Amino acid sequence: QAQLVESGGGLVQPGGSLRLSCAASGNIFRFYVMGWYRQAPGKQRELVATITRGGSANYADSVKGRFTISRDNVRNTMYLQMDSLKPEDSAAYYCNSKEVVRTASIADYWGQGTQVTISS
Length: 120
Prior knowledge:
Elements: E1 4-7, E2 10-12, E3 18-24, E4 31-39, E5 46-52, E6 57-59, E7 67-72, E8 77-82, E9 91-102, E10 105-110, E11 114-118
């Protein structure tokens, strides 16, 4: 099974920036789509952003214009650049990757999460 390890979380003030990283074991070319999700205490996990193998990105409305998702297929790492952070961005952020292992069969991988806290 693929291993995904998130890093880069921390405590920052409103308006600050963080860059999250998701390092994958093996070549990430096998992941046709990767994404970031977040979950605050007592809330459902929500989609933040996705990026395809070809680099096409989509964002939740709440983060459009502030977050940028990218993937480096050489370093086998996905990133989430977060700017203009708001308190409502506070959550555990999770890396997700999807791999087609057989026709009509998709493997879905998750990292352990990295905590992002926005507070004064």
